[in-house]
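Researcher: Good morning. I'm working through a list of sequences from a screen, and I'd like to move beyond sequence-only analysis. For each chain I'm collecting a predicted structure so we can compare shapes side by side. This is the next one on the list. No need for commentary yet; just the structure.
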Amino acid sequence: MTVPSTSALAPPPSPPCSPQPYPSGDGRRGEHRPDRPRVTELRLSAFAGHRGAVLPVAPLTLFTGPSGSGKTTALRAYEALARLGGGDDLAEVFPDPVACVPERARSDAQRRRGFRIGCTADGPEGPVRLDVAVQTEPELRIAGERLTAGGLVLLETALRDPGRHAVQAAWHTGGAAPVTRAPLPDDRLGTALLPLRVAGKTDGQRRVLAAAEQMVVALRSAFPCDPRPGRMRAPVPRGTGRLLPGCDNLADVLRRTRTECGRRHALLVEAVRAGCAGPVADVLAEPAADGRVRAVLDRGDGTRTAFERLGDGELRYAALALVLLTGPGVLEVDPAGEVPAALQTLTVLADGFDRGLDRRQRAALLDLAGRMCARGHIRLAAAVGDASGAPGACGAEVVHLVP
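Model: Good morning. Structure tokens for this chain:
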């Protein structure tokens, strides 16, 4: 990626937004209805190896490219924005912030360095843009933030006094005073704090609230997922039945989902049958001697194969199929609880989506992803090593990254 020049941490000026129509898979049912907020663009203005990158985010997005092209970095930026939108502070989101600074970025006159990321969320309010500048040196803090819609700046923050742990914020009012000014914390996303700060008494304030809520709902509806086969083989304790990002507790989730929805479980069995060796009549969880549960394949002839005997590729394939078929009610996410589930669309962020999969498994999983994303059941942004055949097969938006 090209290398950013020095200095300015403030977000760049935001041009007026325009909707970005992306394909919805089969073109019939799916681009998620306009009442469902969703991220449609990711901007990596200066982040790690990226400079000035504008990446589309469709219902099904595949980031592809050679090693070092920034596929994982793009997903990491999306996850960081999602966590900031959920209210996490900077230190939690960026435990190693210096790694996010472009390698050759030089300090400015105040000895500051940092990075810039942003996104666009579409929904009832139309496209809403968020741009964030993060200072990493000499101290981690948000140096600037801008929320815009229709070319109008709704929120803007700036670091005025380096000695104070606050930024000066100004948000649109539209009443007797055009803007309201107040300090906000410099370690949290101001957009996520607006619902607690804006009264909503004027049309301008209500517009600010609607845009901020659309952005926050779109960002919070994300589930980072990277199955770890080494932790999926052993029996697990009974728990909440909600799948963890590493899919360690897959057996416990199978115990729950097998009885909750017979139709989706049948689809899971069909998917596992297409991607695992040997016959598969059912996928289930059975109790272990110590009270825990383990996942097994029922071969249909009285034989049951424990997941501990499956290969890494089979385990990753089965876990990702379960993720695509279950959705937000089963995945361990922190959704916007005050927003009805019908108005939310979950986005799965999957690094190494095809890692360890053979060609047959990759094709079957992409086909399943295409069908689920086209229905509006879920959205998927994934990093893949090989996207050959994907556009025609599953309606994917393939984003080629070049180092």
